[in-house]
TrEMBL record, chain B:
InterPro entries with a match to the protein in the record: NrtA/CpmA_ABC-bd_dom (IPR044527)
Gene Ontology, cellular component aspect: endomembrane system
Gene3D superfamilies recorded: Periplasmic binding protein-like II
Record keyword Lipid biosynthesis present: no
Cited Pfam families: NMT1_2
Keyword Transmembrane helix listed: no
Domain of life according to the entry: Bacteria
Name this polypeptide is given: Sulfonate/nitrate/taurine transport system ATP-binding protein
Keywords: ATP-binding, Cell inner membrane, Cell membrane, Membrane, Nucleotide-binding, Transport
Coiled-coil ranges (or none): none
Subcellular location, principal: membrane
């Protein structure tokens, strides 16, 4: 079976590819370039197309499918008309899949399930990364607030942190929120 | 008790009303907690709507009808209780072509530009390299407006020229690379192409149909029935956002809000121009003021006229090349729901038209129309070719079209 994976994120494409090669008799084609997309799909003539929901070229692809239908070429459609649940699951995971009509549903299902798992794996990675980045930013804000306290009140570093923590506990807020307030206040009040 | 509603949108200036309803607290005031979901293609916005990720969506009007009639995918009935805006699109051509078809430094007259373009289209077709146009979606007002104009000027779409789909963020690039010779797209993407020197604006779509229906608020019919009360509150909030949006005092602020990364993630300057009907048609030129370029609120612009849905259906028949079907025409007409609009706004200060359908393109000078509530003055709503669309004779209209 010929599967085309359209993804401008090479990292995600490779995660999906890695999962799909485990399936029997699947040939996988990864397309990461926007330009010449339709021509490439025409050449590949895939049985199934996987594409992430965030890709603006989805509208182009749908146009292509409806035109090929008009030209009496194989009909491509959004998964299986009857299988709303798996479509909803794929939308949930951020993947849209197009399958050439007439392909046995029992052959599509494992591919779709796999694609969904891989998409979910990728979004977990993204979330972890975003969380790590967020933590880093929080760290910086807290450090900046500590420096402000150390300079303005002449506190040593551990004491400055203890002050932040105490204020946070007293007000039922997160330390980073208190730190942010201090940094903002300093920016407003200070002459810089 | 607050109703929670999720609305999907694409990053375009005409997604402004839901965004501002949330940002300025109009939704909260009406007891609606609004969450907005940004997507990158109409197909995805529609998927989220159909599979329940969103309750409502900012959608190109013809797509709501296509989804209901089952074009391109299994049919699901959508309802449109509110029009998010009229027009706001332009036709932008590669600079060397633009200069051949319109007067220097001005947007042209639709018929004159079309006539000049016809000569070029014929030459290019004879040379085996037909002119190619990009529109944002097969079932978009852009596609129908462009085709209506080309056909009215004697250029046969699909025969004399090619029309293809180009996602808005790629329009400037596609022009520059020569993949397309022209685009019909909403703002800020024409201005982006102009700023990059990839294209020049020759027409605004308001010149093709002065009051052309553009984006709508679409819901699944079933969701509208289940959440009717919440939807009516949302409609009231959107009206307040509309009044705020058109007030020049707020232009600067609203442009800044729309420009934020979570919304359009674009230039506040370009957005402000679109909001204030200002167009830079060529790089290095002067701004041109085109009144009614984009139409969000006045003249009950948000009222879902059934005749507008019917006009869109005529274009679907025309360009999908399927025969007229009375039952489809009726289903298309029922997508627009003036009854919901009325019940949402009855008793507020918003004007409500007396009728739900009108002869489109028939108003040549400003006129006062009969109303159910308030006063409405309608300004000209003509098509560039002077044709009128009478919804009581759809077949007659179809047979007259070129």
């Amino acid at each position: 079976m010929r599967i085309a994976v359209i993804d401008e994120s090479a990292a995600r494409a490779s995660i999906i590819q890695e999962g799909l090669v485990a399936l029997d008799d699947c040939e996988i084609f990864v397309l990461t370039e926007r330009r010449g997309l339709l021509a490439r799909i025409g050449e590949i003539n895939p049985d199934i197309v996987l594409m992430d929901l965030g890709n603006p070229s989805r509208d182009v692809l749908e146009e292509y499918f409806s035109v090929s239908r008009a030209l009496d070429r194989p009909i491509a459609m959004f998964v299986d008309e009857s299988d709303d649940e798996s479509i909803a699951a794929s939308v949930e995971a951020g993947v849209s899949s197009y399958v050439v009509d007439g392909l046995a549903p029992n052959r599509i299902r494992p591919i779709l399930d796999l694609a969904i798992t891989r998409f979910n794996a990728f979004s977990r990675l993204q979330n972890d990364l975003a969380a790590a980045k967020g933590k880093l930013a929080e760290r910086e804000t807290i450090d900046a607030a500590k420096r402000i306290l150390m300079n303005s009140k002449g506190l040593p570093e551990p004491k400055a942190y203890a002050e932040l923590r105490k204020a946070a506990m007293n007000q039922g807020k997160r330390i980073v929120d208190i730190a942010e307030a201090i940094v903002t206040a300093d920016r407003l009040m200070g002459d810089h | 008790m607050s109703t929670e509603l999720t609305v999907g949108f694409l990053p375009l200036v005409d997604a402004c009303l839901p965004i501002l309803a949330k940002e300025h607290g109009f939704a909260e005031e009406e007891g609606v907690t609004l969450s907005l979901v940004k997507d990158m293609s109409w197909a995805t916005v529609l998927d989220r709507l159909l599979y329940g990720h969103s309750d409502a969506a900012h959608l190109v009007a013809p797509l709501a009808i296509a989804a209901t009639l089952g074009r391109g995918r299994p049919a699901q009935s959508l309802s449109v209780p509110f029009v998010l805006g009229l027009n706001g699109n332009a036709v932008t051509l590669r600079p060397e072509i633009a200069r051949m078809v319109r007067p220097e430094g001005q947007i042209g007259d639709a018929a004159e530009v079309g006539a000049a373009l016809k000569t070029i289209a014929q030459e290019r077709k004879a040379a085996g390299k037909p002119l190619t146009f990009g529109v944002v979606h097969r079932y978009s007002s852009h596609n129908y407006m462009l085709r209506y104009w080309l056909a009215g000027c004697g250029i046969r779409p699909d025969i004399d020229v090619d029309i293809t789909t180009v996602p808005p963020p790629f329009c400037a690039d596609a022009l520059k690379q020569g993949e397309v010779d022209g685009i019909c797209v909403g703002e800020p993407w024409n201005s982006v192409a102009v700023e990059q020197g990839a294209g020049e604006i020759v027409l605004s779509t308001a010149q093709i149909w002065r009051r052309g229906v553009e984006k709508v608020l679409a819901l699944r019919e079933q969701v509208l029935d289940e959440k009717r009360e919440g939807v009516q509150r949302l409609i009231r909030a959107l009206c307040k956002a509309g009044a705020h949006f058109v007030d020049p005092v707020n232009w600067e602020l609203n442009a800044e809000i729309l420009a934020r990364p979570e919304y359009l993630d674009g230039s506040a300057e370009l957005i402000r121009r679109a909001i204030s009907d200002q167009l830079l048609i060529a790089r290095g030129g002067a701004l041109i003021h085109y009144p009614d370029f984009m139409f969000q609120y006045r003249e009950a612009a948000n009222f879902p006229w059934v005749s507008q849905a019917e006009w869109l259906y005529t274009q679907m028949v025309r360009w999908d090349n399927v025969p007229f079907d009375a039952q489809d025409a009726q289903r298309a007409a029922r997508v627009f729901r003036p009854d919901v609009y009325r019940s949402a706004l009855l008793g507020t200060g918003e004007p409500l038209p007396g009728a739900s359908s009108k002869v489109e393109g028939s108003i040549e000078t400003s006129m006062v129309v009969s109303t159910q509530q308030g006063a409405i003055q309608l300004e000209p709503n003509t098509f560039f070719d002077g044709e009128v669309f009478d919804p009581s004779d759809i077949e007659g209209y179809l047979s007259r079209l070129p």
